[in-house]
Amino acid sequence: MSAKWDEQFEELVRRFLPFIDAEEPLAEDMNMRDAGLDSLGTVELLGALEDLYQVRFVDDALTMDTFATPGVLWATISKLSTAAAG
User: Fold this and answer.
1) Structural domains for the chain
2) Where are the beta strands (DSSP E) in 6-71?
3) What pLDDT does residue 31 have?
4) Is the pTM of this model over 0.85?
5) What count of Cα atoms within 13 Å lies in the side-chain half-sphere of residue 70?
6) pLDDT tens profile 19-39
């Protein structure tokens, strides 16, 4: 699967996934929990993403499913960014 996110997203998400090697590709369907994302990391990642992309995660986006894979997380950010712009 080919990821469609930007480099900043990948760099930020990788900081919260200690169980993946630097050479390992960040796949859209990678289980982020298995890659080391814990509950504290999820909260910190949420704040960092909100700051970076100037979005606010609304209640329906504040679920563990949103942070399940990089692909789902990027899709959520894209949707929030579009809503904020329009």
Assistant:
1) 11-20+27-85 (1.10.1200.10)
2) none
3) 98
4) yes
5) 26
6) 999 899 999 999 999 999 999
